[in-house]
Amino acid sequence: MTDIKWHKFTKHRLKMHWTTDQTVSLSSAVMYGVLSLSMAFLNKAVVSEYQFNFPFFILACQMLLTVCILECLRITGKFSIPLITLSSVKMFALPAFCYSLHATLALVALEGMNIPMYGALKRCTPLVNLILAVKYLKKPRPSTILMTSVFIITLGCVIAGVSDPTFNGYAYTMGALSVVTQAVYLTLVQECGESNLSPLHILHLNSYIAVVPFIILTCAYGEFTAVLLYQHRLEFEFVTIFFLLLVLGLLLNFSLFLCTMLNSALTTSIVGVSKSVLQTVIGFYAFGGITFHLVNIAGIVLNTLGGILYAYAKYKEGQRRHRKIDLGDKGIQQEEFPTELHISNNHNNKYTKAIRRQYEQKPQVDLQTMARETVLAFLFLFSCFIPWSFSRNLEFNPYRDIHSCTEREFFDEVSLECVKCGDNQTSQNEKRHCICDAGFKTVYDGYNVKCEVCPDFYVSTKDKTDCIPCLNESFFDASLRECLPYSNFSVDVSESVIMADRFLNGSVRDNMQFLRCSNDTVVENDSCMPCHPSFYIASGGYCHCPTTHVEFQGICILQKYLEKIPNKESSFMVTFEDGLQVLSSYYQINFRLAAVLCTYLKNRTACQMLSNMCVMHHYEFSENFNACQFYREEYGENFINIPDYVPWLYYTEGEASVYLSKTRLKTQYSFKLSDPNSKLNFTVAKYSVNGHLLGYGQLEDTLTLCPLTDFHLEDAVRFGTTFSQTCIVDVQDIWDSYETVFYDVFLQYYDDDEHMIYAIPVLNRNYKEDGIFVNQQSERKWQLMRRFFLVDNISGKGSLSPKAQDQSHRARVVRYAQNIEILIRLREGESHGLIYPPFFRITYGEVNDDMYSSKQKVKMTLRVSYTMDFAKIHEDLSIAVGVISAFATLWSLIGTWSWSRRCGKLNIDIPTIIHLLVTVCGNLANVFFIVMLFACLYWTIFFKRQDVVHLFLLTDDQEKLIKEYLIAACFLKLIQIVHILYIQVSLDMFIIDWEQPRAKNSLPHPQLSSNLEDQKSNKAEQQPISIWRTYFIANEWNELQTYRKIDLGCQLFITLLFLHVFRFKNLANAGPDSNFNEKDSQYSPFQSYVCRFAISIGIYSLTAACQWLYKAAFYERCIEDKLQQFIDLCSIANISIFILEHKMYGYYIHGRSVHGYADVDMHSFYEQLKREEEDLCGHRGLEPSSECQTFEVAITYKFREQYDNILKPFRGFIGIQKQGSHGKMASSEMEQSFHAHETMKRFFGMFLQHAVRDLDYIVKDKLFLESVLDLEFQEVDDRCLFFRDNNRTFDNVLFCGCEVSFVLFEMLLFTFVDLLSYDFILAAIITFIVGYIIKKVRYAGGRKNVVNKTLVDQRFLI
């Protein structure tokens, strides 16, 4: 007999295939489809919508729940499941690992994919299954229609994925790996099925094995700790969905097994495909985040059609293929499963025999009973959660106003909702409360009010407390149940006459009568009764207070109620910030009364008054008992269990981050003025100090921050506009002109189509616990509140005497809202324009009575700030600065290496380290400036131009990072500028005159010393060479040292012209508008420093770039090029210049005339130029047939030694001093200077003509990499190196060669001054002054250096 894998359990299944009730079979199939469909959406809701990205924790909980339930069923004997053994664990370890990996990857993929694409990708599983079945399980090749369907599925998935507008490469990769691991898992399970393991046993094994790695990974990745801190962990909606996710995960696996048992595997497959189609359709409309694209939709449809074709192909195969199962007593034809699991004929399998014995020993379950119980449990599970969904949530409520209430509803001043009146009641007094209808009298059932109908021909009294007949039955209107007006009859009714229903003693009359009110009373609502209703309630309809009650503050109160409210001095004491304690007369008069009326009579106005008293205490509760302590003891410490007649004051302690991070607000705000969501629809409920509702409307219409000044709150509610306005108020006005008013703020929004309001929390920074300002510390310690006030000039009024409850003239201390800030945070990573719940942050100030007559003023500021997660911004900036700074440091090392080689240093010494630090300073300043500039330009441009909101500007606190970088960059750049100035005013240079004597002169030269005459005694006397050409070149060089292509004065003038005249500065306003014109109102919009820096430096940079392009592209080409003119001048003057910027490195400007002489008359001069023009002479270059006149020079140590030896006697010599008297000959030092000048000239002349032994040079080109890195790789041996330089890099020793450094320094200085002063004009003035000083310092130092190094007379430098 064949050894089948399910034994008796399969036998029950095969019997029930024909005998099970069709309703139960259908229910099991529907149950599987619903559960399978729900799982994808629940996973999406938990992982994506709630951002519960803890896949290992979810799976560990699912496995634990499955293990617990299966063990309970096994122990109770409901199922026969073999015990877990080591051999079974080893056998199923690999499939369990693949299942774990598949489940984890699927959850990760769902976080970044929409539901339709997830379903399309999962339908690619058959492709991998078919490959593994053929290659691994050695199954026959599938049919053509099956392969076609798989191909269509895969093609549709590829098309949909490529054209998915929300394509996420990481999510798709995880989804693809999930498909592969699922296919491997199914293949391994199929192989295990052939080893005679039942599906229930597989589920049992899989749960036991997989729970271990999931728990380990949960702890290893810190998910367990993160779950404990998860912000939504206490929310009912999340807990419900998470519990359903766990339960449905178990039920899904079981329903798969149940559906297969009661129907067939083919039915299960078809249900799965149908579910997939529904999942795709519903997924387009659930959760959002899906962008419709034609190609993407086409791919999903193609993928879905392939799935349907696959199910059809498997259906046909199932009809064609049957097999016989030998159960020992008869053979039964059974459909083969689509997964092609077949039964093994292995009779000697020990594990199979063990399983058979356990199944035979355990009682088997009735599948029909089990199905009914499971379906009923499934329905019961959902029904249990339905009532919970209607629990009260005070944060999110439907929006209602007074006008929306019907005549049978009144407007509840606490919940701000329309509440239905009782039976036979109608709202009155502007729908503030309900009274009985006409013809009904008020009956008090305890403190509950009921309306009882009056007998026929009777009407209710004016106060609705009794019934009374009309004067005549004919006056009775049965339809209105009122007495007809006497104006319809001949009765004269004057203004002082009322329709009286009571006698003067308060007893009810026999019928309606007319009475004239006394002179000391007035007709008000047709009544002359001044008695408070509490007297009637206490006395059963009489206007007196019984002995069991006590009259307190004009109200009749049950004495035992009043005795329960302690009459402590601490209840009336108010402590202010400076330590002053005032025994408040207001608290003495009203606290106990409000406490009794609110607690025992449930008087809503009294509850409002009691709450206001707590708010005036800054919510501080004292162990010595005060209003806040009474509120918390009586009504709770938060809003969860608070009665509906008591205003809500406290949020749950320590849960500020939870409330401020909720994602219930679905309104997508926009910057478009035409969009209704371009405005924050704040709604304010305004209450008097005595608890009456004064107003309920828009914030800009209701919140009166500064009633005595023009305060523009319309700009404050414009979405995206950072608003800041301050009003200056006289201290006396705080006492005399302001009322103490309290505010509850709400935000209107739409949840789908329902108009809702959200209660805005308040963060009172003056709130203290145990003497600590907890709301001025970290967010995790915050205590959020609900209500706030602007001015409190009530609680500080003390009693004139300790026992009297009268009030003094004015409050001894007044509190006022010094700073109110509304903070709105952007929700990133979701749809654009979504925000977290806003909140108010308020700081209160105090003024005491001594300041009343001082005529001092105080400031009250309202600010609206928009912020986003700065952690990501900070991280991005840090990464950008860090990475680029690393390259800048590397570039500094290369520059320092080049400098050390040019200075001839062989080792690292102190000057090398100092130069490295200076170079790093300059390069880091460039990095800081460039990164901050581009970041600010990005924020400014994208913030101003976005219609769909995806970013906000930085707040003041967040801007500190930008400012710190810019300040650091300014000072670092200053160090580099000082270093550049030092290098340029300390370099070595010499002017070489190539002119040679041409004629004899019989007269002695007056300036030649006798030593020179002795040296030339053997030579023919020649005419001396004129020194004026040398002086002329020295003067031109001196003027060229401070020449710049960018004129600083013009630069600053154009920048200010655009900023102030063309009003580009208005673009720096911290709002979404991009207007150049200022608003007509007095309100000056707040300016964002990010925008201010981006706009000002953007204009400055563009102006500098335009100046440079104008000079480089037009001016130097068409008008004059000062550097080229100087080189030409050197050639005409027959003079060369040798410059040593560093000890072993410098520049050479070759100016030797091709004509041999330059000291000629005008005719000869023009003849020389003409010969050059006609190319009748040689070229001006150093080399023959070369025009290159400028070179970079790397000299040898021997050359430097010879140069230093010539100048050694004159180190520190500053040129020829002014003569003391006319006719006096030069000093000996002057003569030595002349001699050194001649010696140096002959040395350079001979060296450049290759006439000095052991000192020679070669001319060559720099390598490309040498030019890029500004570093010479070629070693200088015994010959100097002259590198051809057509880029005139000798300007590095001039201002024009360091143009970029000076422009960056000026921009940083301009930014630094503007950062401190917020004044562009002042920044421009200081920048110009500093630039002028630097220029003068450079000119003076350069002039002195020219005199010192070229040995020319300083008197001839202009």
Layout of strands and helices, then pairs:
Elements: H1 7-19, H2 22-49, H3 55-75, H4 86-112, H5 115-122, H6 125-135, H7 144-162, H8 169-193, H9 199-220, H10 223-228, H11 236-262, H12 265-283, H13 294-320, E1 322-326, E2 331-335, H14 350-361, H15 367-385, E3 396-398, E4 409-412, E5 417-420, E6 425-428, E7 433-436, E8 440-445, E9 448-453, E10 458-460, E11 467-469, E12 476-477, E13 482-483, E14 497-502, E15 508-516, H16 533-539, E16 549-552, E17 555-558, H17 559-563, E18 573-575, E19 581-583, H18 585-599, H19 604-616, H20 627-635, H21 656-659, E20 682-688, E21 693-698, H22 699-702, E22 723-730, H23 731-736, E23 741-751, E24 754-759, E25 762-764, E26 787-789, E27 791-792, E28 813-825, E29 839-848, E30 857-867, H24 870-902, H25 910-945, H26 956-984, E31 988-993, H27 1010-1015, H28 1028-1040, H29 1048-1061, H30 1089-1119, H31 1122-1133, E32 1135-1142, E33 1145-1149, H32 1162-1173, E34 1190-1194, H33 1197-1207, H34 1228-1248, E35 1256-1260, H35 1264-1269, E36 1279-1284, H36 1299-1317, H37 1320-1350
Parallel strand pairs: 25-29, 28-30, 35-36
Antiparallel strand pairs: 1-2, 3-24, 4-5, 6-7, 8-9, 10-11, 12-13, 14-15, 16-17, 18-19, 20-21, 20-23, 22-30, 23-24, 23-26, 27-28, 28-29, 31-32, 32-33, 33-34, 34-36
Domain Sugar phosphate transporter: 34-310
InterPro entries: Growth_fac_rcpt_cys_sf, Meckelin, Sugar_P_trans_dom
Transmembrane segments: 21-42, 54-77, 89-109, 144-163, 169-188, 208-230, 236-258, 265-287, 293-313, 374-390, 877-900, 912-941, 1316-1334
